[in-house]
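User: Please predict the structure of the protein below. I'd like the answer in structure-token form so I can feed it into my own downstream comparison script.

Assistant: Understood. Taking the following sequence of 139 residues as input:
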Amino acid sequence: MRAVVGRLRGEREVWVATAHPEHGPHQVPLWFVWHEEAVWMCTSAASATVRNLRAEPRVRLSLPDTADVVLVSGTAACFPAEEVPPGAAEAFAGKFGWDPRAEEGAYVYLRVAPVTVRAWRGEPELRGRTVMRDGAWLV
């Protein structure tokens, strides 16, 4: 668990997989910050990711290293930039040196509170790879 949380704090990008009932699957990398036990991302309000999550909020996130896998499943909540909790927006801006709230275009912050997290490093760790279930870290 500690190694997974360390990765969530340290990584910069996460693959975001969404699906829309009419448009099908969509996957895109986004910057993220781990803040208050949730993954926070930000993207254009007109993006397919936002469109998909408004229609179907279930989401799968994956860190980019396939030799050190972390998969996060959860439900996304969308926050227009003017409604995002200040702490989350400041954590995002602090990590990346970019504050979408100051941009002219419309941006949406996405909050994903993990429900299930699976992590493993190669075949020897395939058993016991679930480190969070139903939103509770497993010890």
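That's the full token string. The helical segments are 2-10, 48-55, 86-96.
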